[in-house]
UniProtKB/TrEMBL annotation:
Chain intervals with Low complexity compositional bias: 148-162
GO molecular function, one term: nucleic acid binding
Matching Gene3D superfamilies: Ribonuclease H-like superfamily/Ribonuclease H
Region annotation Disordered: where it falls in the sequence: 144-165
Domain of life: Eukaryota
Protein name: Uncharacterized protein
Length: 279
Protein backbone atom coordinates (compact mmCIF):
# COMPACT_ATOMS: atom_id res chain seq x y z
CA UNK A 1 0.00 0.00 0.00
CA UNK A 2 2.84 2.41 0.83
CA UNK A 3 4.52 1.63 -2.50
CA UNK A 4 1.25 2.32 -4.34
CA UNK A 5 0.62 5.61 -2.58
CA UNK A 6 4.18 6.82 -3.16
CA UNK A 7 4.40 5.39 -6.71
CA UNK A 8 7.71 3.64 -6.11
CA UNK A 9 9.24 0.18 -6.26
CA UNK A 10 11.84 0.87 -3.58
CA UNK A 11 10.13 -1.10 -0.82
CA UNK A 12 13.05 -0.72 1.60
CA UNK A 13 12.45 3.03 1.83
CA UNK A 14 9.00 2.38 3.25
CA UNK A 15 10.10 0.10 6.09
CA UNK A 16 10.69 2.92 8.57
CA UNK A 17 7.41 4.85 8.12
CA UNK A 18 5.33 1.67 7.81
CA UNK A 19 6.76 0.02 10.93
CA UNK A 20 6.48 3.29 12.84
CA UNK A 21 2.86 3.63 11.75
CA UNK A 22 2.07 0.10 12.90
CA UNK A 23 3.72 0.60 16.28
CA UNK A 24 2.03 3.95 16.96
CA UNK A 25 -1.43 2.95 15.77
CA UNK A 26 -4.14 2.48 18.38
CA UNK A 27 -4.90 -1.20 18.93
CA UNK A 28 -8.57 -2.07 19.31
CA UNK A 29 -7.65 -4.91 21.66
CA UNK A 30 -5.49 -3.15 24.25
CA UNK A 31 -6.96 0.35 23.62
CA UNK A 32 -3.47 1.84 23.29
CA UNK A 33 -0.50 1.64 20.92
CA UNK A 34 2.45 -0.79 21.14
CA UNK A 35 4.73 2.27 21.36
CA UNK A 36 3.01 3.45 24.55
CA UNK A 37 3.16 -0.02 26.10
CA UNK A 38 6.88 -0.24 25.35
CA UNK A 39 8.02 3.27 26.31
CA UNK A 40 5.30 4.40 28.71
CA UNK A 41 4.41 7.58 26.80
CA UNK A 42 2.87 8.74 23.56
CA UNK A 43 5.20 9.24 20.55
CA UNK A 44 6.74 12.70 20.31
CA UNK A 45 7.71 12.74 16.66
CA UNK A 46 6.26 15.51 14.52
CA UNK A 47 6.40 13.35 11.41
CA UNK A 48 4.66 15.80 9.06
CA UNK A 49 6.84 18.68 10.20
CA UNK A 50 10.11 16.79 9.76
CA UNK A 51 8.91 15.44 6.42
CA UNK A 52 8.68 19.03 5.17
CA UNK A 53 12.15 19.72 6.54
CA UNK A 54 13.54 16.73 4.65
CA UNK A 55 11.79 17.73 1.43
CA UNK A 56 13.20 21.27 1.61
CA UNK A 57 16.69 19.85 2.35
CA UNK A 58 17.12 22.16 5.34
CA UNK A 59 20.40 21.61 7.20
CA UNK A 60 20.73 24.83 9.22
CA UNK A 61 18.57 25.29 12.32
CA UNK A 62 17.99 28.94 11.41
CA UNK A 63 16.36 27.88 8.15
CA UNK A 64 13.69 25.74 9.82
CA UNK A 65 10.19 26.58 8.55
CA UNK A 66 7.33 27.72 10.75
CA UNK A 67 5.57 24.76 12.42
CA UNK A 68 2.07 23.73 11.46
CA UNK A 69 -0.35 26.67 11.62
CA UNK A 70 -2.71 26.84 14.58
CA UNK A 71 -5.89 27.16 12.50
CA UNK A 72 -8.47 29.69 13.71
CA UNK A 73 -6.50 30.55 16.86
CA UNK A 74 -4.17 32.79 14.86
CA UNK A 75 -5.25 36.42 14.43
CA UNK A 76 -5.75 37.71 10.93
CA UNK A 77 -3.07 40.38 11.37
CA UNK A 78 -0.43 37.78 12.24
CA UNK A 79 1.55 36.90 9.14
CA UNK A 80 3.26 33.53 9.23
CA UNK A 81 6.34 33.24 7.09
CA UNK A 82 7.04 29.66 6.01
CA UNK A 83 10.61 30.31 5.01
CA UNK A 84 12.31 32.32 7.79
CA UNK A 85 10.01 33.61 10.53
CA UNK A 86 9.67 30.88 13.16
CA UNK A 87 7.47 31.38 16.22
CA UNK A 88 8.09 28.56 18.68
CA UNK A 89 6.01 29.92 21.58
CA UNK A 90 2.82 28.61 19.99
CA UNK A 91 4.04 25.01 19.77
CA UNK A 92 6.08 24.59 22.95
CA UNK A 93 4.30 22.53 25.61
CA UNK A 94 3.34 24.80 28.56
CA UNK A 95 4.52 22.09 30.94
CA UNK A 96 7.96 22.24 29.37
CA UNK A 97 8.04 26.02 29.78
CA UNK A 98 7.13 25.74 33.46
CA UNK A 99 9.77 23.07 33.99
CA UNK A 100 12.51 25.13 32.36
CA UNK A 101 11.47 28.22 34.31
CA UNK A 102 11.53 26.28 37.57
CA UNK A 103 14.98 24.86 36.89
CA UNK A 104 16.26 28.32 35.92
CA UNK A 105 14.94 29.85 39.14
CA UNK A 106 16.51 27.09 41.23
CA UNK A 107 19.87 27.47 39.50
CA UNK A 108 19.76 31.27 39.92
CA UNK A 109 18.86 31.11 43.61
CA UNK A 110 21.63 28.62 44.32
CA UNK A 111 24.11 30.76 42.41
CA UNK A 112 23.26 33.77 44.60
CA UNK A 113 23.72 31.67 47.73
CA UNK A 114 27.10 30.49 46.47
CA UNK A 115 28.21 34.11 46.02
CA UNK A 116 27.21 34.98 49.59
CA UNK A 117 28.67 31.79 51.09
CA UNK A 118 31.79 30.79 49.13
CA UNK A 119 32.61 28.05 51.64
CA UNK A 120 29.37 26.17 51.04
CA UNK A 121 29.98 22.46 50.57
CA UNK A 122 29.14 20.47 47.49
CA UNK A 123 25.97 18.98 48.94
CA UNK A 124 23.92 21.78 47.38
CA UNK A 125 24.94 20.68 43.88
CA UNK A 126 23.83 17.17 44.70
CA UNK A 127 20.43 18.53 45.74
CA UNK A 128 20.12 20.46 42.49
CA UNK A 129 20.99 17.39 40.42
CA UNK A 130 18.50 15.25 42.32
CA UNK A 131 15.80 17.91 41.93
CA UNK A 132 16.57 18.09 38.20
CA UNK A 133 16.25 14.31 37.84
CA UNK A 134 13.01 14.38 39.86
CA UNK A 135 11.50 16.95 37.52
CA UNK A 136 12.58 15.09 34.39
CA UNK A 137 11.15 11.81 35.63
CA UNK A 138 7.92 13.29 36.96
CA UNK A 139 7.35 15.18 33.68
CA UNK A 140 6.01 12.06 31.93
CA UNK A 141 4.82 10.24 35.05
CA UNK A 142 1.18 10.33 36.19
CA UNK A 143 0.44 12.95 38.88
CA UNK A 144 0.91 11.70 42.40
CA UNK A 145 0.15 13.21 45.79
CA UNK A 146 3.59 13.52 47.31
CA UNK A 147 4.17 15.09 50.69
CA UNK A 148 6.68 17.95 50.94
CA UNK A 149 9.81 17.00 52.82
CA UNK A 150 12.39 19.31 54.34
CA UNK A 151 15.07 16.64 54.22
CA UNK A 152 17.66 16.55 51.49
CA UNK A 153 16.67 14.12 48.68
CA UNK A 154 18.89 11.11 48.24
CA UNK A 155 19.48 8.78 45.32
CA UNK A 156 17.52 6.02 47.04
CA UNK A 157 14.38 8.19 47.19
CA UNK A 158 14.30 8.97 43.46
CA UNK A 159 10.99 7.94 41.85
CA UNK A 160 11.14 5.05 39.43
CA UNK A 161 9.99 5.26 35.82
CA UNK A 162 8.38 1.85 36.26
CA UNK A 163 5.24 3.52 37.66
CA UNK A 164 4.54 5.14 34.29
CA UNK A 165 5.13 1.91 32.41
CA UNK A 166 3.17 -0.17 34.92
CA UNK A 167 0.10 2.04 34.57
CA UNK A 168 -0.03 1.83 30.77
CA UNK A 169 0.87 -1.86 30.68
CA UNK A 170 -1.70 -2.72 33.34
CA UNK A 171 -4.36 -0.84 31.38
CA UNK A 172 -3.37 -2.68 28.19
CA UNK A 173 -3.41 -6.02 30.06
CA UNK A 174 -6.86 -5.36 31.51
CA UNK A 175 -8.26 -4.39 28.10
CA UNK A 176 -6.70 -7.47 26.49
CA UNK A 177 -8.05 -9.83 29.16
CA UNK A 178 -11.49 -8.24 28.98
CA UNK A 179 -11.65 -8.84 25.23
CA UNK A 180 -10.28 -12.37 25.59
CA UNK A 181 -12.84 -13.19 28.30
CA UNK A 182 -15.68 -12.01 26.07
CA UNK A 183 -14.45 -14.14 23.17
CA UNK A 184 -14.02 -17.17 25.43
CA UNK A 185 -17.53 -16.75 26.79
CA UNK A 186 -18.96 -16.53 23.27
CA UNK A 187 -17.00 -19.64 22.27
CA UNK A 188 -18.26 -21.60 25.29
CA UNK A 189 -21.84 -20.59 24.53
CA UNK A 190 -21.39 -21.70 20.92
CA UNK A 191 -19.93 -25.06 21.98
CA UNK A 192 -22.76 -25.63 24.49
CA UNK A 193 -25.39 -25.00 21.83
CA UNK A 194 -23.56 -27.23 19.37
CA UNK A 195 -23.26 -30.01 21.97
CA UNK A 196 -27.03 -30.03 22.50
CA UNK A 197 -27.52 -30.79 18.80
CA UNK A 198 -25.78 -34.19 18.96
CA UNK A 199 -27.25 -37.17 20.78
CA UNK A 200 -26.81 -40.94 20.94
CA UNK A 201 -27.36 -42.78 17.60
CA UNK A 202 -26.62 -39.63 15.58
CA UNK A 203 -24.30 -40.01 12.60
CA UNK A 204 -21.21 -37.78 12.50
CA UNK A 205 -17.89 -37.56 10.71
CA UNK A 206 -14.46 -36.98 12.25
CA UNK A 207 -11.39 -35.82 10.37
CA UNK A 208 -8.68 -38.37 9.57
CA UNK A 209 -5.20 -37.04 10.26
CA UNK A 210 -2.93 -36.69 7.24
CA UNK A 211 -0.44 -39.10 8.84
CA UNK A 212 -3.07 -41.87 8.78
CA UNK A 213 -4.14 -41.59 5.14
CA UNK A 214 -2.90 -41.05 1.63
CA UNK A 215 -4.02 -38.40 -0.83
CA UNK A 216 -6.54 -40.81 -2.34
CA UNK A 217 -8.09 -41.91 0.98
CA UNK A 218 -11.20 -40.22 2.44
CA UNK A 219 -10.54 -37.23 4.68
CA UNK A 220 -13.53 -37.87 6.96
CA UNK A 221 -14.53 -41.01 8.84
CA UNK A 222 -18.29 -41.74 9.23
CA UNK A 223 -19.23 -42.86 12.76
CA UNK A 224 -22.22 -43.19 15.06
CA UNK A 225 -22.51 -41.72 18.56
CA UNK A 226 -22.85 -44.44 21.22
CA UNK A 227 -22.10 -42.46 24.41
CA UNK A 228 -22.40 -38.86 25.57
CA UNK A 229 -20.58 -38.17 28.84
CA UNK A 230 -19.93 -35.08 30.93
CA UNK A 231 -16.24 -34.58 31.71
CA UNK A 232 -15.61 -31.54 33.89
CA UNK A 233 -16.99 -28.49 32.13
CA UNK A 234 -17.02 -30.16 28.72
CA UNK A 235 -18.92 -33.00 27.05
CA UNK A 236 -17.18 -35.87 25.25
CA UNK A 237 -18.57 -38.49 22.89
CA UNK A 238 -17.75 -42.15 22.21
CA UNK A 239 -18.03 -43.21 18.58
CA UNK A 240 -18.30 -46.51 16.76
CA UNK A 241 -17.96 -47.90 13.24
CA UNK A 242 -18.88 -51.20 11.70
CA UNK A 243 -15.33 -52.38 12.45
CA UNK A 244 -15.34 -51.52 16.16
CA UNK A 245 -15.64 -48.90 18.90
CA UNK A 246 -13.11 -46.08 18.74
CA UNK A 247 -10.98 -45.97 21.89
CA UNK A 248 -10.60 -42.19 21.76
CA UNK A 249 -13.20 -39.77 23.06
CA UNK A 250 -14.10 -36.76 20.93
CA UNK A 251 -15.40 -33.29 21.68
CA UNK A 252 -18.08 -31.65 19.59
CA UNK A 253 -15.65 -29.36 17.77
CA UNK A 254 -14.22 -32.42 15.96
CA UNK A 255 -17.60 -33.32 14.45
CA UNK A 256 -19.11 -32.82 11.02
CA UNK A 257 -22.85 -33.43 11.00
CA UNK A 258 -23.97 -36.43 8.95
CA UNK A 259 -27.63 -36.84 9.95
CA UNK A 260 -29.04 -36.28 6.48
CA UNK A 261 -26.85 -38.92 4.80
CA UNK A 262 -26.08 -41.50 7.46
CA UNK A 263 -24.90 -44.82 5.96
CA UNK A 264 -27.32 -47.71 6.48
CA UNK A 265 -24.56 -49.95 7.84
CA UNK A 266 -24.07 -47.57 10.80
CA UNK A 267 -27.78 -47.52 11.59
CA UNK A 268 -27.86 -51.33 11.86
CA UNK A 269 -24.81 -51.72 14.13
CA UNK A 270 -24.95 -54.09 17.11
CA UNK A 271 -22.70 -52.27 19.59
CA UNK A 272 -22.44 -55.25 21.93
CA UNK A 273 -20.62 -57.33 19.31
CA UNK A 274 -17.96 -54.71 18.50
CA UNK A 275 -14.42 -54.64 19.87
CA UNK A 276 -12.33 -51.58 20.67
CA UNK A 277 -10.15 -50.24 17.88
CA UNK A 278 -7.57 -47.46 17.81
CA UNK A 279 -7.90 -44.36 15.68
Amino acid sequence: KWMTQNDTTHWSEGLLPVVYGINTRMSSTIKTSPYQVMFGQAPRLESDFWKLVAQDEILDEEDLPTPVALGGDVDDDVVISKERDTTWDDVIDPDVTKLVQKLTDEALSNSLIDIISPTRNCTSSIGINNSFVDNLISFDSPPENTALSSTQPSSSSLPSTSSRHDLIRQTATNNYLTGASKRMKLHHNYVDKLTDKFNINDCVEVQIHTAGRTNTDPKLLPCIVIEKNKKGDSTVFKLARQYGVLQNSFSVDHFVELKSSCPQVLKELNIGELNDISF
